[in-house]
Amino acid sequence: MPVQIKSAMKRRNVLNAIGGLAALSLTSTTRLLAAPRGTSRLLVVFLRGGYDACSLLVPISSNFYYASRPDIAIAKPSFELTSALPLTADWGLHPALRDSLYPYYKNGELAFVPFAGTNDLSRSHFETQDSIEMGQPLEGHKNYSSGFMNRLAAVLTGSAPMAFTDQLPLTFQGGAKVANTALRTLAKPSVDARQSSIIASMYQGTPLGAKVSEGFNVRDEVMREMSAEMDAASRNAINAKGFELEARRIAKLMKDSYNLGFVDVGGWDTHVNQGAATGYLASRLDELGAGLAAYAQEMGSAWRDTTVVVMSEFGRTFRQNGNRGTDHGHGTVYWVMGGGVRGNQVVGEQVRVEQATLFQNRDLPVLNEYRSVLGGLIQSQYELRDSQVDNVFPGVKVRDLGLI
Amino acid sequence: MTACHRSSSTTVIAWTSLLSLGLLLGCAAPPTTVTPAQTVSNPDIYALTNRITWGATSSTLEWVQSVGANAYVAAQLHPDRSATLPVDVQVQIDAMTIVKQPLTGLVQDLEKRRKDNDAIADDDAKKAAQKDYQAELNRLAREAATRHLLRALYSPNQVQEEMTWFWLNHFSVHQAKHNLRAMVGDYEDAAIRPHALGKFRDLLGAVTLHPAMLRYLDNEQNASGRINENFARELMELHTLGVDAGYSQHDVQELARILTGVGVNLTTNTPGMRKELQGYYVRRGLFEFNPARHDFGEKELLGKPIHSKGLGELDEALDRLARSPATARFVSRKLATYWLADEPPSALVQSMAQTFERSDGDIAAVLQVLFAAPQFMNAEQQKFKDPVRFVVSAVRLAYDTKPVLNVGPMLNWINRMGEPLYGRQTPDGYSLQSAAWASPGQLTTRFEVAKAIGSGSAGLFRTEGPQPQERPAFPQLANALYYQSISKTLSPATRKALDQAASPQEWNTFLLASPEMMRR
């Protein structure tokens, strides 16, 4: 493990030295090593708050669904613009994604995994998010400072991880060095190069030393990548905002410099008035869809070997609550998108959606446990050996859904 | 107060000579008692002051020196309610709408305004009116945040102010929801600050019945037959027992039923209800318990029945939650995490929890155990500063008793570092772990802020409004405290960096950016 971390660090140093040209030249170096390929890209998008999966992937063949949600159901596919978009005989897609992600689904680059999630039953946002980010077995001793994406970064030779968040998320905490940079807002730095190096010198040899110099390196790299955007913005060339703008920036960095990314999107805890085809949740889905489509577009030719996974801590109650919203539930829907993904399908173990199949007569059940699903995904994407997958998700029984 | 505005060099002479003469006259907050000479050495006093307050300053150190460490800590745990802020600061606070207008009238006026706006026929006029309404809400929330920072900077009762931040974070609300921006000032001032060092049960009761919390966690929507579990779950998971305390989904549902009808009423009307329910109706300001929305069925919580009926059920439930040993452990651990270390020693947490139980949740008594523990002064245990503490401690150090006229720049720095007051979206509050604030991206931003503070007055001494006034000011970091205490704590690498500074501005920047200034 230390050797792999070291080589990952080395790669970053080279990257920092030669900037955008690095990706090409390193592909060959990486292949010389008999280790998993870290050159394909993976972005994990975490929807914090437990998004209402039944509004995204609509069980259109379930009368029980329409009976349970008199005010917030999405209508069966029809010519109405507010109806669900047809995916399969049983499933439809929220109409807010008509222009952004529906084309990717039809084009075979987007798939959904319903009944996904964790067996953690606390129904607490925080507990469940932490548990998923750690990616460890629910039973037994937990290491609270080791996340599954950090372990993945350590397993992959040539991984260049980056959290596109204000704070380093739990999933990226652990032994491998991972930097973070939030891209929602960008400001030109005022601490100059000389001052940066003097500040860094104060931290040399301290526990924060590596983080301080990494922070300055990332800052410089972001500024290089974004200088074009900043110039363009001053001519009003960019009108994207919110997550779409952020996603485009992430793509710019992941095209050239980073191949393992994480970003989180909040605002999904819809206890009250969540809306249906339009309304609050629809606008959140619209922004997310536009962002992911922008990301795919911005990646250009690199989209070919890029995978995006969208996940959330849990689904919400199957029935609407007393306030035309939904409460914390259990099973959810994961999205898998990418240039090399076998899309245009709804995959994994499934059951008919009716009262008898609800978990605790309340929520969608979890039939596709997240560690086995993600384990299968990274195994095929990176051609990992079983033992390597086991390093990332200890004790996992891998389930290959054939998505890559 | 004017006598306190001495230059830093005279301050040194003043307090040392006073000490030697035994004339113990404090300054920023005059101590009233005289205690025997202290055996604590100067660097220890600095470490203690830095740890106990929002950040060491020359004047605070002078006070601690004069009354002695033990008396200072005791005074902090049992704050003098008549203590005053510097006049310039009090004037800023007294001018605030949130101070001049009580919450009930303020919110009722705003509600009327909102409804009147909705009724405006002309689209443009309506839009303009709605924009003004939103701007007013923003202004009120900014007043609250401003007052919070002014008190953190200048209140003699530092521990009370820190605990106010701590409980605001423990009982976190997000100002962006509904009209919470008009409520956060009162939430902090009426529900939290008075109980910040009091009994946990009183604090819990005040917070649970405050309209800001009831709106934030959707309990105003929670009614019999239309259950909303949101508040019930967080009340046990985040506010009292903690997530692994052994309560069940059934307990969440039962507490949600107990909470039915507990809500807010932003109007002056009283809802109609059947005669036999009227005796249960409770109205206090904006708070309302509406028995017509309450589930009067039998209930049990944590394996025992609830005996009361109506709002009394909630009192009974809060008693049970506040007095659970799980709550004592959960709260004690969180306090130790905030004040001491990411992973506080479990024996210490246990002894705090015992005091919590024995004293019926006396927060000051629990803190006393923590402050008196040998680990508390252990240099290894220095806690990494979160962004709010970094900014407040830097401004305290740079300007000490010269009060800033505008905390706007501080609010911006804190926002930029991701820890705005009343700005946490989720009810868990900001992380108390160092790792949450010490990532590469955050450190880079923190150095930007260090440079902004170190390079000049940064707008802190320029008032806002149509006729801004500016007072000349410059951050005085090479001050008495620096030469007396801070310089002795610096590593060779930090000293070398300071030697390379090409200007006072740069020297300030390097000092504020140094590893030593990252820890309390």
Description:
The complex is a heterodimer of chains A (404) and B (520). Chain A is globular. The longest helix of chain A is centred in the middle third of the chain and has 26 residues, at 209-234. Chain A is α/β, with parallel strands linked by helices and 404 residues long. The model of chain A is unreliable at 1-35 (pLDDT under 50). In chain A, strands 1, 5, 6, 7, 8, 9, 10, 11 and 12 form a nine-stranded mixed sheet that branches. In chain A, strands 2-4-3 form a three-stranded antiparallel sheet. Chain A has 13 helices and twelve strands. With 520 residues, chain B is mainly alpha-helical. Chain B is 53% helix and 2% strand. Chain B has 24 helices and five strands. Chain B has helices at 8-21, 42-52, 58-67, 69-77, 87-94, 97-100, 103-118, 123-154, 158-170, 184-192, 200-208, 211-216, 230-239, 249-258, 312-322, 325-339, 346-358, 363-372, 387-399, 408-416, 440-454, 480-489, 492-499, 504-512; strands at residues 262-264, 282-284, 287-289, 300-301, 304-305. In chain B, the strands form two sheets. Chain B has a three-stranded antiparallel sheet with strand order 1-3-2. A two-stranded antiparallel ribbon of chain B has the order 4-5. The two termini of chain B are 27 Å apart. Chains A and B meet through helix 6, strand 7, helix 8 and helix 9 of A and helix 13, helix 21, helix 23 and helix 24 of B.
> Strand sequence of the main sheet of chain B, in spatial order?
1-3-2
Q: Helicity level of chain B, as a percent range?
A: 40-55%
Contiguous helical run count of chain B: 24
Strand content of the residues of chain B, in percent? Answer: under 5%
The string of secondary-structure elements of chain B, in order, is: HHHHHHHHHHHHHHEEEEEHHHHHHHHHH
Radius of gyration of chain A (CA) equals 21 Å
Mean pLDDT, all residues of chain B: 90
Overall form of chain A: globular
* Oligomeric grouping of the chains: heterodimer
Helical coverage of chain A, percent range: 25-40%
Largest sheet of chain B: 3 strands, antiparallel
The count of DSSP E runs of length 2 or more, i.e. the number of strands of chain A, is 12
Order of helices and strands of chain A: HHEHEHEEHEHHEEHHHEHEEEEHH
> What is the first-to-last residue Cα distance of chain B?
27 Å
How does the major sheet of chain A shape up?
9 strands, mixed
How many angstroms does the end-to-end distance of chain A come to? 26 Å
